[in-house]
């Protein structure tokens, strides 16, 4: 009977274990299913977000294309700039059309073999005028531009002289002398006017390009002025900068990089720092340290003063009877220079002060002894007392703090 009960218990335990395993497996399958569902939803959300991002990107592209199309359309409208640029070219074309026939008639009347001379002469004036525009675009030397201008005006002047003579030759051929002279002057003027108009157009475009970005011009001017003043102020660094730029391969160093390296070579410190600056800084730190030391004020003490005031419920003092004196040094107001302090002797020198006068030894006050005993309890024993933490707790001088510490230590650990 007992064996049957034992076997039944084992069977029940096995069934219970199997149910637990089945439940664990089912829970694991459910967790995997939930994770797969979560992954699928996250993937769907990512796909939706990516689709929206692409739609927004495409919308921005479409807007940019529309803006470009509108800008291109505005460029084709009758703006003052377009009217001037295109109107000048149209006027130049009329000028060439008016001056060329008279030249052709003049040269053909001499010989048919001179027919190409007229287009060549007129074309030379326009080719040279286009050369001036090309020289301006490529920033060629000024003498090249003036040479091309001279050749253009020379060819146009010769063509104008021929047209003027042709106009005079019309006298007696249905025109009076005055009318023929007027025709000659008109033909000469229109012959010279075309290249002149084109040249004026080129000057206007060049000047307009120079003032397109006044902010950039002002910045370039300020940069040049800064570099000039800097080189004037630090001549030794400027000379070293030139040496570095000449010694380095062309284009490997910028002027600013060369200046930083030259400053370090000459001054021995990072940019804007010199030996005088370091000396002045040390002197200023010495002044501050001296004033704080004379006033018995340090950043650490000021921080601990607030903490101890919260712990013990009293303010710092100078070791007086109540422990709550104002803490103003005898030699002057708090934060001010003591009377014994003198001026600095020079760069790199520390302040000189008069030796303190010895006076009667101040007796230990019972209130201060109680405060130090409380401090020892808070710190965990008198062996943890130091002149510094006693001085910061009481707000007294170092000599008085030493005597307080030794007195409390001699009493032993407070029980």
UniProtKB/TrEMBL annotation:
Keyword annotations from UniProtKB, A to Z? Membrane, Transmembrane, Transmembrane helix
Give the start-end ranges of region Disordered.
1-45, 320-366
Transmembrane ranges? 83-104, 110-134, 146-166, 178-198
| Gly residues: bias regions | 333-346
Q: What is this protein called?
A: DUF2637 domain-containing protein
Organism of origin is Streptomyces lavendulocolor
């Amino acid at each position: 009977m007992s064996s049957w009960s034992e076997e039944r218990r084992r069977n029940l335990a096995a069934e219970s274990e199997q149910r637990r395993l089945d439940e664990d497996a089912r829970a694991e399958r459910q967790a995997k299913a939930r994770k797969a569902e979560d992954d699928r939803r996250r993937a769907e959300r990512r796909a939706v977000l990516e689709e929206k991002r692409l739609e927004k990107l495409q919308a921005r592209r479409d807007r940019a294309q529309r803006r470009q199309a509108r800008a291109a359309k505005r460029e084709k409208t009758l703006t003052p700039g377009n009217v001037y640029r295109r109107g000048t070219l149209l006027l130049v074309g009329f000028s060439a059309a008016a001056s060329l026939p008279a030249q052709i008639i003049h040269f053909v009347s001499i010989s048919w073999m001179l027919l190409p001379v007229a287009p060549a002469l007129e074309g030379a004036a326009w080719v040279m005028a286009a050369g001036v525009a090309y020289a301006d675009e490529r920033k060629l030397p000024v003498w090249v531009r003036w040479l091309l201008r001279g050749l253009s005006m020379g060819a146009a002047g010769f063509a104008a002289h021929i047209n003027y003579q042709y106009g005079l030759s019309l006298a007696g051929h249905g025109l009076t002398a005055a009318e023929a002279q007027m025709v000659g002057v008109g033909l000469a003027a229109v012959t010279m006017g075309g290249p002149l108009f084109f040249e004026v157009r080129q000057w206007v475009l060049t000047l307009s390009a120079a003032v397109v970005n006044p902010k950039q011009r002002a910045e370039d001017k300020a940069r040049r002025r800064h570099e000039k003043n800097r080189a004037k102020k630090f001549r030794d660094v400027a000379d070293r900068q030139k040496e570095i730029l000449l010694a380095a391969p062309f284009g490997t160093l910028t002027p600013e990089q060369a200046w930083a390296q030259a400053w370090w070579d000459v001054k021995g410190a990072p940019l804007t720092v010199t030996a005088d600056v370091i000396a002045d800084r040390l002197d200023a730190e010495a002044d501050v340290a001296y004033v704080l030391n004379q006033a018995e004020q340090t950043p650490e003490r000021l921080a601990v003063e607030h903490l101890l005031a919260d712990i013990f419920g009293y303010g710092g003092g100078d070791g007086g009877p109540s422990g709550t004196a104002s803490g103003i040094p005898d030699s002057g107001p708090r934060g001010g220079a003591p009377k014994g302090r003198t001026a600095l002797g020079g760069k790199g020198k520390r302040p000189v002060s008069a030796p303190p006068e010895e006076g009667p030894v101040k007796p230990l006050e019972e209130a201060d002894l109680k405060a130090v005993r409380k401090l020892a309890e808070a710190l965990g024993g008198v062996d943890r007392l130091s002149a510094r933490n006693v001085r910061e707790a009481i707000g007294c001088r170092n000599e008085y703090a030493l005597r307080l510490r030794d007195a409390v230590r001699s009493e032993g650990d407070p029980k």
